[in-house]
Write a structure and sequence with these properties.
The complex is a heterodimer. Helices cover 0% and strands 51% of the residues of chain A. By secondary structure, chain A is an all-beta fold. The chains are: A mainly beta, B mainly beta. The interface between A and B is medium-sized, with 29 and 22 residues.
């Protein structure tokens, strides 16, 4: 079975632009979470979705938004990009809200 | 609120020597605790987890960790380091009531010397 897949693997954006990151969970998993990992730091929780509903939100500005689709895949959107948004964005899927999370390889976003 | 502190951002060990990575947590409720490993340009791989069963938890690749409530610690050990253990290790805590939202420590990078 395929693991958690994220796309794209790398991208470069300019300050002020918008970006959309995508995540496909493991088959049968209904929950997706997003994390931001700035270089040299541990991941920070951004969002959790379960059955297409937001179940948790971290301490991130409103420029960050996400959604989950009927097939349980998810998108993370970031508007008005700042240099500080440069990071590895990790997606994790789990069967339910409180079961083990499996991480994807991440999307490396560079804002210039 | 929960928090995790990993003592030592970098650890250097000789091949065959003991690996000890320290993790202390803060949680107002009984926690779930995790150790993850991250290889360069990769995502996170779960090494082991504590979910209120046995306090000594065995994981993959020969790692184990012991939950000590009195010390609020969950240190990770491996008796004999291998070159392939060179990676970054993250300790994480989750609030059982908050689903699997994970709060991570800052990470410890392990260097293994031949």
């Amino acid at each position: 079975d395929a693991g958690v897949t994220q796309s794209p693997t790398h991208l470069i954006k300019t300050r002020g632009q918008h970006v959309t990151l995508r995540c496909s969970p493991i088959s049968g998993h209904k929950s997706v979470s997003w994390y931001q990992q700035v270089l040299g730091q541990g991941p920070q929780f951004i969002f959790q979705y379960y059955e297409k509903e937001e179940r948790g939100r971290g301490n991130f500005p409103d420029r960050f938004s996400a959604r989950q689709f009927p097939n349980y895949s998810s998108e993370l959107n970031v508007n008005a990009l700042l240099l500080g948004d440069s990071a590895l964005y990790l997606c994790a899927s789990s069967q339910r809200v409180n079961t083990e999370a499996f991480f994807g390889q991440g999307t490396r976003l560079t804002v210039v | 609120a929960q928090s995790v502190t990993q003592l030592g951002s970098h650890v250097s060990v000789s091949e065959g020597a003991l690996v000890l990575l320290r993790c202390n947590y803060s949680s107002s409720v009984p926690p779930y605790l995790f150790w993850y490993v991250q290889y360069p340009n990769q995502g996170l791989q779960l090494l082991l987890k504590y979910t209120s069963a046995a306090t000594l938890v065995k994981g993959i690749n020969g790692f184990e960790a012991e939950f000590k409530k009195s010390e609020t610690s969950f240190h990770l050990t491996k008796p004999s380091a291998h070159m392939s253990d060179a990676a970054e290790y993250f300790c994480a805590v989750s609030d059982r009531a908050a689903g699997n939202k994970l709060t991570f420590g800052g990470g410890t990078r392990v260097l293994v010397k031949p």
